Amino acid sequence: MSAATLIARDELRLLRRNRVAVIATTLLVLLTLVAVATSWAHQRGIADLRMRYQQGADRAFEAQPDRHPHRVVHYGTFIFRPLGPLAAFDPGVDAFTGNSMFLEGHRQNSANFGDVRQSSLLVRFGQLTPAFVLQIVAPLLLIFLGYGALARERERGTLRLLMLQGVSRRSLVGGKLLALGAVALVAALPALIAFVAMAGQPGALALPMLVTAIGYLTYLALWTAVILLVSATVRRSRDALLALVALWAVTAVLLPRVVPDMASAAVPLRNRLQTDVAIARDLRRIGDSHNPADPHFAAFKQSVLDRYGVTRVEDLPVNYKGVVGMEGERLTSSLFARYTGESYAAQDRQIALVDAAGVLSPTIALRALSMAAAGTDFAGHRRFLDQAEAYRYALVQRLNRMQAEDVSYADDTAEDVGADRRKRVSATNWSAMPDFSFDRASGTDLARGALPGLAMVVGWLGGVLVLLALATRRLGERR
Amino acid sequence: MNLLRHELRLLARQRLTVFALALLTCLTVAALAAGMAEVARQRAAIAAIPAAQAEDIGAVAAWIDAKKDAGSAAYYSFHPTWDAPAPLAFAALGMRDVSPYILRIRALGLEAQIWDGDTFNPELALPGRFDFAFVLVFLAPLFVIALFHDLRSGEREAGRGRMLDALPGALALWRRRTGLRLALLFAALALPFTVAAVVEGVAWGTILAVLLVVMAYLLFWIAVAALIGRLRWSSVANAASLAATWLVLVLIVPTLANVAVNAALPVNQGAEIAMAQREAVNRAWDIPREETMRRFYARHPEWADSAPLGPAFHYKWYLAFHQNGDESVAGRVRTYRAGLEQRDAAGRALGWVLPSVGVQALLTRLARTDFAAQLAYQDRIRAFHRRLRTFYYAYLFRDRPFAKADFARAPRFGDVPNG
């Protein structure tokens, strides 16, 4: 048996005898189990609920009576964002984004009813998820168990004894690294087992799960190495503990809050009121559909008349009101696309600023990795928003086309007693409309989104290992 | 006094203490600055409303004036509402980053509008804001730990413990040392805060209340440190167990409690309200219009003497079924709101046993940034919406023309009294 293994075994025996260490590790394992259980139950509950709501909304849409197509444009439809299986591991922004959306004509509504506005103030203290336990709590446990690993030996003079007996510095540090790494593995084990269980879920993707597992293990290895580095360089074990707790507080608690605040101050977002007013302004510039003499709509009308070779809208083979509806929707939607595009770009810039701060805090890098792989980051939410908008536009234009083709212009403009009946189209049309189905990101896409974070965490580990190697060479020197 | 100065000199020689106090002061100042900047941004956004609104409503008024149709005016006019930050909001931003503080509404169905949110980046909101409340609740205890974990064990480990305890003024010595450290920590938090609060025009009573909260929270953590200190462990064991206590009280128990509260008090998803309201509203197109009007007049007899509907579309029917739709879900709204209030109450009740939650709840209450403040804003929106309806109905149900000048007569949110 090599010296390093012996030292590792010795250190582990010491930890086993330390009642506090055993209790703390047990508590962490229990906490992880509770987090896994509640987070999974929560995610399943949400998924079921949203699926039920979605089915209810689809049924309600199909059960509409005979209606004028434009009524259905405003009746609209509700869609609910489904969650991927990994959301049970890291729900990311799910609680902070609304999970339901009302889609209708000429308007782009916000996603509403997020958990954050439906929970008590406790939700802002953080959410108990396996990701939270591994990102924030596990490193602190490792600090408590490992701060003294080398500092203690030096403080008590046993370091010199060990070296006199011919133990090389490398095997000494290597052994301690091995022991603390084993503890880290124990701490991560429940989460990893839950992970394997989640892999059995339908829709679970292998590649992002692999990236997540590598990311978290690298992160815990990184903390193990940091702890030994500080323990090797600081003179007293108390200083090692304080320095490590301070380091943890700054990188895991402080920076993840400060950096987003700075990012949101650096890149301001246009609020909804200003966006709506700006869109209305742009629409007026293009043309005023309320004004019969408006040049844009006059030209549009002429082009439609020319296309069909007639001189009056009454002579058109299609209902002109439906045609104008399509043109109006095209205009408003292109403006929505432009303004939401600007807003998304600004939010992406904010997130890029935060992600760059992964250089300062590995926790930030890991969080980005974890959410990206689970598809619960902003990009994942945006995927939903983009598909929702595409679906909304297609649905509204189908209905406008229905108005143009299936409702005659004469009926549509009539105001007599029976006109309301003649304007309606058959209820059989509604079930022919396609339902919204969310096209999830592929495993490759999710994994690719997680790569920058992974690169940073691996880079951190590499850097700290180099420093640890340097510190090992000078271990035990008189200063 | 001399002794105190002597203690201060001793303290100033400890690099850790000096560094910790300087860092806490810096963090406090930074958090206050960040909070003030955010509140200034919110105030600027609110101040920018009138200009944008004037432009928007001006354009609507321009083309509606040709028809003088009150219904189109009601349909196309958006009216801004806003929730100005209270003077203390900078210290505890609470829910203001995820709940809208500006919302435009129309005189149509309110339940389809009042739950809308504003634009915010969810990834930035996720970790929570860096404000004074965060520095106090999360970080200040760590500084208490840094300054107090070796208060007595440090002397013991240096071999002076027994001697100090044997001195005649031993008790006074520990009191002096505790008091001095407490005063320095308090000053690092309270002085920057007081300056910021005075700049922001916070009432003196409120400032005093916050200072009391700060003092009480620091005392709690000092008491914890003293309790653990009595076990006569080594400095390093003290530090480790204090940090573990902090982890449990500030991070783990609140998150566990959040899971428990949400599981114990289920609320129906708000989406149900929106869906039910939309069914009720759209059904009106498929039932006889007289039925809608009968139902509306039964609840609002003040308009019942309005002229009967002709065959053509009339906006008073349109607005009436929107109001019927709101009223048909009023019960659900009450239940939903009661559920949310129960959750909030449960969260705050935890504050009585968990100081971290208690301080957060107190600060957000004083700063009017908590859930109750969001509800109060919703109540003001509802009151304003009632005025809007009454305003437009007076034209619609009496068939009065709505001219350009009438747009300026519309109720303004600023006139709604604070709930």
TrEMBL record, chain A:
Alphabetically ordered keywords of this record: Membrane, Transmembrane, Transmembrane helix
Pfam families, per the entry: ABC2_membrane_2, DUF3526
Segments crossing the lipid bilayer: 20-41, 131-150, 177-199, 205-229, 241-259, 450-471
Signal peptide (from-to): none
PANTHER family in UniProt: ABC TRANSPORTER PERMEASE, ABC TRANSPORTER PERMEASE PROTEIN NOSY-RELATED
Protein's UniProt name: DUF3526 domain-containing protein
Species for this entry: Sphingomonas corticis
UniProtKB/TrEMBL annotation, chain B:
InterPro entries associated with the record: DUF3526
Domain of life of the source: Bacteria
Keyword Transmembrane helix on entry: yes
A Pfam family: DUF3526
Keyword set, alphabetical order: Membrane, Transmembrane, Transmembrane helix
Chain ranges passing through the membrane: 132-151, 182-199, 205-228, 240-261
Protein name: DUF3526 domain-containing protein
Native organism: Sphingomonas corticis
